[in-house]
Amino acid sequence: MPAPITEEQTRLDREALLDAAEALFYAHGIQAVGMDRVREACGLPLKRIYRLFPAKEDLVVAVLRRRDRRWRASLTAHVESVPDPRERVLAVFDWLAAWFAEPGFRGCAWINAHGELGSSSEPVLAEVRSHKRAFRDQLTAWVSATGIPVAEPVYLLAEGAIVTAGIDAGPEPAEQARAAVETLLGG
User: Fold this and answer.
1) What is the full DSSP assignment across 39-92?
2) What is the pLDDT of residues 170-179, one digit of tens each?
3) What's the first-to-final CA gap in the chain, in angstroms?
4) Which of 44, 65, 120, 176 ranks highest by number of CB atoms within 10 Å?
5) Considering the entire predicted model, what is its pTM?
6) Which of 63, 79, 65, 85 is nearest to 18 (CA)?
């Protein structure tokens, strides 16, 4: 009889599975990647994968949720390292430009997931909405600190830059949105 799987092994297996699934889903699309391909990439048996995530949809939600935590933590660390409120808002677009220029950038994982599954998966749609709401709330807080009531246009410029960069690739959409935000902020 095999030894029972420890909590630590479960944590390691879960992380390996999420790493493999995230890389594959982001690079190739959720629907284009079957669970056999995820299995090959992470090295876990399908039985173990389905014990961790009973359905592919559960795996997709976990991937998006984990990516959200990392994405927003990275953005927040970058922006909050800037002391001036106005410059903080502009730093959002500097961070976006750097993200857009990363090798393998393929647009917004949440927009991509929404495009593939948003109309057919309520849990995926809820995760996408949660991410976008959290981003909007954080951006609104940074813009509000400037005392200039332009949070919604700044959010729309950020989202527009994200979507455009996903199609056209490169940092230019963030740079152009940053210039527009400078104008909105009176600079």
Assistant:
1) HHHH---HHHHHHH-SSHHHHHHHHHHHHHHHHHHHHHHHHTT--SHHHHHHHH
2) 899 999 999 9
3) 70
4) 44
5) 0.91
6) 63
